[in-house]
Specification:
There is one protein chain. The chain is of the alpha/beta class. The protein contains 16 helices and 24 strands. It folds into 3 domains: 2-238, Metallo-beta-lactamase, Chain A; 247-354, Rhodanese-like domain (Oxidized Rhodanese, domain 1, 3-Layer(aba) Sandwich); 363-471, 3-Layer(aba) Sandwich (Oxidized Rhodanese, domain 1). The chain has a 6-stranded mixed sheet, covered by helices on one side. The chain has a 6-stranded mixed sheet with strand order 7-8-9-10-13-14. Helix 14 (388-393) links the parallel strand 21 (381-384) and strand 22 (400-401). Helix 3 packs across helix 5, helix 7 (249-256) crosses helix 11 and helix 13 crosses helix 16. The relative contact order is 0.09.
């Protein structure tokens, strides 16, 4: 028996490969199916099942393409009603994979169809449980997402279901079980997940607040719902894609992989009103970019920020990337449902400049220069674009919080006639914010390279008292 966690950092998502005696099962695959097919081919195995723990909100699953390419049966838990051919498991139903068995355990709460999958080895011993978004390491899946798709499923109702699922289905299982969750730290599907991506169930019973048997149902509901921030706007749209089906990734890749000359790129942008998405590193972007382009760097939490800041999944997108990053970028867009990439700039920004096309720049200064400016004149306007929880834990006194997550909703706070300095934690998010504001017509913007970490290291500016994040919900 082989069990492998296939972890994708930019989405903080874990898929799983399970194999026994030439048969394999995949749990919660991403949309790009090649890693799973290659893994099975390497082992000489046939993929028999694709198990889906629920209809995912934060990514488009690869179950349809994987099934089409391998003939594997798609399996959902009870109450799931996909608009395509799939098998709906009964609570407690076993599935044979080689000499091992995988048992469906219906655990409603994160969503109503949420199902965990219990792995039993060749001897019948329960060895691991794949919990999807029902149970994370140190946390549980947020129970407020399904209400954005089904209005009468309130977050209180779902949290109550989750309490019962954990108490009646998960906690009675053996302590030595290995817990394999669907996500780790950084995912928006929970609020305080551990950076660890596996643990024993026994350890989770000791340290995961949600498994504390002293909590009453009412206390559990309050604890689980306290501190949740609004989910990214693309979540409900991804849920519907996972329920209704979607276009093949091969077709999406073919459409997006059109290499366009500067002239053709400019014409396409004008004709389609496409968004120009520049995925290069922040400081590289600052030195020269196509006017009105948005910068979201491919090396950061790319997919989640695209989903947060580009509200329309059907928005036509034209790409500017470093050479060789085109295919990766199109794939990562498609993972969160952005299927309408219509091409990329051949030769990148240098080809654009060589063609005599106009380029824009961003003024970016060091943390020390910013510290000197603010120390000399505390009345200058500056924004910290980190999340509110980050800002609340520690920030530069006198600098306002304008979270990038909600930038589109808070443009009215910004005076186009004033000059603003912007920083985040390390420089990634502040450049995103600057690029969005510039595309909206704001010109007097200065980025602080290195962000809060660099400002703090310089040590010239007064900071609020640090509050340990572990004490905050």
């Amino acid at each position: 028996m082989k069990v492998e966690q296939i972890y994708t950092g930019c989405l903080a998502e874990a898929a799983y490969y399970i194999e026994s005696e030439g048969e394999a099962a995949i749990i919660d695959p991403l949309r790009d199916t090649k890693p799973y097919i290659d893994r099975a081919t390497k082992e000489g195995a046939n993929i028999k099942y694709v198990f889906e723990t629920h209809f995912h909100a934060d990514f488009v699953s690869g179950h349809l393409d994987l099934s089409a390419k391998t003939g594997a049966t798609i399996v959902f838990g009870p109450t799931a009603k996909p608009a395509y051919t799939a098998y709906t498991a009964q609570d407690g139903e076993d599935f044979q994979v080689g000499k091992i068995k995988i048992r469906a355990i219906h655990t409603p709460g994160h969503t109503m169809e949420s199902t965990c999958f219990l792995l039993m080895d060749e001897t019948g011993k329960e060895t691991a449980i794949f919990t999807g978004d029902t149970l994370f390491i140190g946390d549980v899946g947020r129970p407020d997402l399904a209400q954005h798709v089904i209005s009468d499923l309130t977050e209180e109702k779902l949290a109550g279901h989750l309490y019962e699922s954990l108490r009646n289905k998960i906690i009675p299982l053996p302590n030595e079980l290995i817990v394999y969750p669907g996500h780790g730290a950084g995912s928006a599907c929970g609020k305080k997940m551990s950076k660890e991506t596996t643990d024993t169930l026994g350890n989770q019973k000791l340290f995961n607040y949600a498994l504390n048997l002293k909590l009453t149902k009412e206390q559990f509901i309050k604890e689980t719902l306290t501190g949740l921030v609004p989910p990214p706007s693309y979540f409900p749209q991804n849920v519907l894609m996972n329920i209704k089906g979607y276009e093949s990734l091969d077709e999406v890749m073919q459409r997006g992989s059109q290499a366009l000359s500067p002239e053709a790129f400019e014409a396409a942008a004008n004709e389609t009103e496409a968004l120009v998405l520049d995925v290069r590193e922040a400081q590289t972007f600052a030195k020269g970019f196509i006017p009105n382009a948005i910068n979201i760097g491919i090396e950061g939490q790319f997919a989640s920020w695209v989903g947060t800041l580009i509200p329309d999944l059907k928005q036509p997108i034209l790409l500017v990337t470093e050479a060789g990053k085109e295919e990766e970028t199109i794939t990562r867009l498609a993972r969160v449902g952005y299927d309408n990439c219509i091409g990329y700039l051949q030769g990148g920004i240098q080809a654009w400049k060589d063609a005599g096309k106009e380029a824009d720049t961003v003024t970016s200064i060091s943390a020390e220069a910013f510290s000197n400016v603010l120390a000399a004149d505390p009345t200058i306007a500056a924004f910290d674009v980190r999340k509110k929880s980050e800002y609340d834990s520690e920030h530069v006194i006198g600098v306002e919080n304008l979270p990038l997550d909600f930038l589109n909703d808070n443009m009215a706070q910004i005076n186009p006639d004033k000059t603003y300095f912007l920083h985040c934690a390390g420089g990634y998010r502040s450049m995103i914010a600057v690029s969005i504001l510039k595309a909206r017509g704001f010109e007097n913007l200065i980025d602080v390279a290195g962000g809060f970490a660099a400002i703090k290291a310089v040590g010239k500016l007064p900071l609020t008292e640090y509050v340990c994040p572990s004490t905050m919900l």
